[in-house]
Write a structure and sequence with these properties.
Helix content is 43%, strand content 12%. The protein is an alpha+beta fold. A 4-stranded antiparallel beta sheet has the order 1-2-3-4.
Length: 231
């Protein structure tokens, strides 16, 4: 497999055009670009990140079968019948906890490009009610530990969003509204984001950016992972 040397500078335009022409005819005409400049390049990226994670002893899975999202949308139960996703998504599961991109409780690191933004995010997206209960209990008891993780300069410089996600309007039943972590206890998911310049994705330098963010996010993901597993 070819070494990763960055994505094409036309990737954003491809997704913008796909957004405006989300149909099988247009995609068929442009499939060679998708296959060569997005799909194959993504495989090269994942393969090289696998080596980097191993060399740095970072607990992430980088596997072309587990990390890459298909561009085809599952429209069986969706009102939106557009056949294709309009973004590139690559997922690196946190191997201490889960190793499946399809697991709704999976914890990991996510790389994203679409026509308007490029970012790397991480955490736990929309967990089920049982996991939410575990997370809220842990946060209520160890909020200062989580705060120290989020305020660590190495982490904060890579994920400037802080802890964000969809949340309840009121604090969940059983928790005090004056709790120091009241805003976190309202969360229904636990994610952090770090925007990156699209230009940085067009060279091999992207590998270092992903590795740097992966390194800084490990304590946050371990906090979540340990909570879910009851450690």
């Amino acid at each position: 497999m070819a070494a990763f040397n960055g994505f094409s500078s036309q990737v954003k335009k491809f997704f913008e055009d796909l957004r405006d022409n989300n149909n099988k005819e247009w995609f068929a005409e442009n499939k060679s670009f998708y296959d060569n400049e997005i799909k194959e390049t993504s495989k090269s990226l994942v393969t090289e990140m696998s080596g980097r994670f191993a060399e740095s002893w970072l607990p992430f899975v980088a596997d072309t079968k587990k990390s890459l999202f298909r561009i085809n949308r599952d429209i069986r139960f969706s009102a939106n019948k557009d056949p294709y996703k309009t973004n590139l998504g690559i997922y690196f599961p946190f191997s201490i906890a889960h190793t499946s991109v399809k697991d709704p409780q999976s914890v990991g690191l996510y790389f994203h490009i679409d026509h308007s933004e490029t970012f790397i995010a991480g955490g736990l997206h929309m967990p089920d009610s049982n996991v939410l209960q575990l997370m809220r209990k842990r946060i209520s008891e160890d909020w200062d530990e989580l705060e120290a993780i989020l305020k660590n300069p190495a982490f904060a410089s890579e994920f400037s969003s802080g802890l964000v996600g969809e949340k309840l309007k009121r604090i969940p039943r059983g928790y005090d509204e004056t709790h120091p972590a009241a805003d976190w206890l309202k969360l229904k998911e636990y994610t952090v984001y770090g925007n990156i310049d699209f230009k940085d994705t067009t060279s091999a330098g992207l590998l270092k950016i992903i590795e740097r963010k992966a390194t800084s996010i490990v304590p946050f993901l371990k906090f979540i992972s340990d909570t879910i597993s009851g450690q």
